[in-house]
User: Fold this.
Amino acid sequence: VPFLVNKDYQIPAFVGPNTMVFACSYSGNTEETLMAMAACLDAGAQVAVITSGGIAHKRAEEKGLNRRPARR
Assistant:
């Protein structure tokens, strides 16, 4: 499985519904991460967010990302 680290505002053209994206920002406010994360979501990618808080955390909560399945 190809693995790419992207540290830019733009995302690769291949990002789409079959792409898993890990959006990582310690503060949750890194501009490049937020812009790329929004573009990935728009492209239909599956996104997981790794952060200690900030805007990235807020957006992940709003969009229901990183939800754990209910316990049985």
Q: What stands out?
A: The mean pLDDT is 93. Residues 41 and 63 are 10 Å apart (CA to CA). Strands lie at 20-25, 46-51.
